[in-house]
Specification:
The chain has about 350 residues and is α/β, with parallel strands linked by helices. It folds into two domains: about 190 residues, NAD(P)-binding Rossmann-like Domain (Rossmann fold, 3-Layer(aba) Sandwich), CATH 3.40.50; about 140 residues, N-(1-d-carboxylethyl)-l-norvaline Dehydrogenase, domain 2, CATH 1.10.1040.10. It contains 16 helices and eight strands. Strand 2, helix 3 and strand 3 form a beta-alpha-beta unit. Helix 8 packs antiparallel against helix 9, helix 8 runs parallel beside helix 12 and helix 8 crosses helix 14. The longest helix has 23 residues.
Length: about 350
């Protein structure tokens, strides 16, 4: 009997309002948040055995131990169960988004809103996540992006959290923000899709740099200076690619950077901290995905195409690729010519 069949006794109503693709920590946390907001939710996992365990145990022991799965959630590996959802959250790593959308796209209901929750830029194509989605699903697909300062554990434990949802159609953005907002998750909305995507992808790379400084023991003064200069280059990048400055100053830019550049809970910060302490890029991951490690080269490629100076991002890309040492990169950054702060 599938996970979908075993759950028919719960008060899930005639069909799911929200589908969530991805059963990791963030996918499970967002599924719980959507259910807490009053929606019935289908949580899709590729692994049938894992979906069955989650459905039976009502706890994602691997990623969110101790957090019960909301009663309105049905966990399943049956893609057809997503067909009744009006809103589908894609909570898969950025580098796998294209493949998962290609696999599941036919199962989505016509007109279902697709909310992209990965923060990154696709390697090889240098495409933003919304561009990937449009390429796979077609230009008529309603696509939105969710980003902002949020740890899965905080959202799952109903701690107050605020994020931003962007869609080019401002009415769609407002509707989806209302759909996902709940007792402790507050969702703001905007039509600046590119600005939100740049903030989410770029901050992962810059959080690695902050972690490197911490791991190298360079002090809080150096880390504060790096975060400020890193944010300045992120603003330059956003302006060049059509993002609005006020978006980068908000939750999905500055807010997310402050969170992930200062906390070991951030996989990107922790990855950078281990690099700074002397670990190789291969061993520094600790078996956990650090999205910024994949995004760094793509971010630098896009910056060079428009002659945007991003020395911090370039330094991270060089270290992650193994093309430069931490000490060599630090020396090079400190040797850069002095200039006006606004330059």
């Amino acid at each position: 009997m599938s996970g979908l069949d075993t759950a028919t006794h719960r008060d899930s109503g005639p069909g799911p309002d929200v589908g969530v693709v991805g059963g990791g920590a963030w996918g499970t946390a967002l599924a719980n948040a959507a259910a807490a907001a009053g929606h019935s939710v289908t949580l899709w996992l590729r692994d049938a055995a894992m979906a069955a365990r989650l459905e039976q145990a009502r706890e994602n022991a691997r990623y969110l131990p101790g957090v019960p799965l909301h009663r309105r959630i049905v966990a399943t590996s049956d893609a057809s169960a997503l067909g009744a959802a009006r809103t589908v959250l894609m909570v898969t790593p950025a580098q796998t988004l294209r493949g998962v959308l290609t696999e599941l796209g036919a199962a989505f209901a016509p007109g279902a809103a697709i909310v992209l929750c990965a923060k990154g830029i696709e390697r090889g194509s240098d495409a933003f996540m919304s561009e990937v989605a449009v390429e796979v699903l077609g230009v008529s697909a309603p696509v939105a992006v969710l980003s902002g300062p949020s740890f899965a554990a905080d959202v799952a434990r109903n701690l107050p959290t605020a994020v931003t949802l962007a869609a080019s159609d401002s009415r769609l953005a407002a509707r989806l923000a209302g759909t996902l907002s709940g007792p402790t998750l507050r969702v703001y909305h905007t039509d600046d899709v590119r600005g939100v995507e740049i903030g989410g992808a770029g901050k992962n790379v810059l959080a690695i740099a902050s972690g490197i400084v911490a791991g190298r023991g360079l002090g809080d003064s150096a880390r504060a200076a790096l975060i400020a200069r890193a944010f300045a280059e992120l603003m330059r990048f956003a302006r060049a690619y059509g993002g609005r400055p006020e978006t980068l100053m908000g939750l999905s830019g500055l807010g997310d950077l402050v969170l992930t550049a200062s906390s070991p809970q951030s996989r990107n910060f922790a990855f950078g901290e281990r690099l700074g302490a002397g670990a190789s890029p291969e061993s520094a991951s600790g078996g956990k995905l650090a999205e910024g490690a994949f995004t760094a080269a793509a971010l630098v490629d896009l910056a060079r195409k428009r002659s945007i100076e991003m020395p911090v991002a370039e330094a991270v890309a060089a270290i992650v690729s193994g093309g430069a040492s931490v000490d060599g990169v630090i020396a090079a950054l400190l040797a850069r010519p002095l200039r006006g702060e606004a330059e």
